[in-house]
Design a protein that fits this description.
Elements lengths: L1 H27 L18 E4 L16 H7 L9 E4 L2 E2 L20 E2 H13 L2 E3 L2 H4 L11 E8 L7 E4 L5 E3 L4 H11 L8 E4 L8 H13 L3 E4 L12 H18 L7 E3 L20 E4 L2 E4 L2 E3 L22 E2 L10 H12 L9 E5 L16 E5 L2
Helix pairs in contact: 3-5
Bound molecules: zinc ion.
Length: 387
Amino acid sequence: MEMIIVNKNRIAACLLTASITVSLLTGCKKDTEPSVTSSETTAAPSVSITETTETTPESSSFVTYTAQEYKDAGVNELNSVPVLMYHRIYGTTNAETEYTGGNVDKDGYNRTSEAFEADLRRYYEQGYRMMRLADFVSGYIDVPFGYSPLILTFDDGIRDVVLQGWNDDGTPVFDPTCAIGILEKIKAEYPDYNVTATFFVNSQLFENGEDNDKKIMKWMVDNGYDIGNHTYDHKTLGKCDAAEIEKQIGSMYKLLNEIIPGQYVNIVALPYGSPETFPPEKPQYEKIFSGTYEGFSYTTKSSLLCSWTRSYSPFVRDYDVRRLRRIRGYDNNGKDWDIEMNFKQLSEGRRYISDGNPDTIVFPSSDNSKGDWLKNTYGHQVITYDK
Ligand SMILES: [Zn+2]
């Protein structure tokens, strides 16, 4: 019973953050991605290859495409990527909830299993293919030619992995309506979807009992899932001093390292999305990114906001690995940055479309016409084409 009250507080605080960020967005037009212009030309499109100073490994296994093929497929690796933020998945139908669409609570942080399964099928049909968040923050995007990357994240661990028992061969039996139950079903159905997700947990892990959760987590990392840090006690880090931040982040990494040594991801989903910024006058926030707790040293590669919209490509100027934006997985009739609104905007010329080669960055030259939009190449070869 106590747990339920805590969860309600979490939902309320998350909503507050989301409301603030939405109004900031509408107020000051934060989103400054260049719009895709269609400059019609009679000349055949040409490809321009820029050699980077760093050595790019030979990638002879990848096909090279012509400018016309890039153009026809709309290849653009400077465009945006949906990183979905889900919380709990409940084994109910949409008709069984009193809220909009597949929402299980008023603010839509929790989703019905019916809606979540439909989300996954829709993303697939729209040409999205999943990839690991850890690869994304490393600038390594391996999605087939003409397809778009999709990243799934889950916060809190509750109702994400619900154990029903163990098979004789030691593999877990999941509740088919929890998040991983549905992911495993979709994985079997769509082998080319590359089903994967990153689960951000607190010290209570997935709440199947400590021994069960430890065994499940080992199974998860061996079966294409990742586990990251959501702080030990789900604390609002923006209200903590340096010592408390170091304890919250460090003790959670320490626990993960005991259960799945070296196999967790060094990424933090910030509870309540706090802090949202890391100003120099708040040096304690650096403890999110490096520190030592009880002799255990850690570093954090990326932190994730409780956000409202798509992430920038890791290659562009406005991408911030410490403030990674996520889309809240909820329904609101296509308004207020729900799934439908975000994916509609992506489909209208803002969507990252892959060239099929993780070692190259391909985009129309007009998208970097001022030369300041492409910022980080991660050592990849850059290829531009005329539209
Ligand atoms: Zn949380």
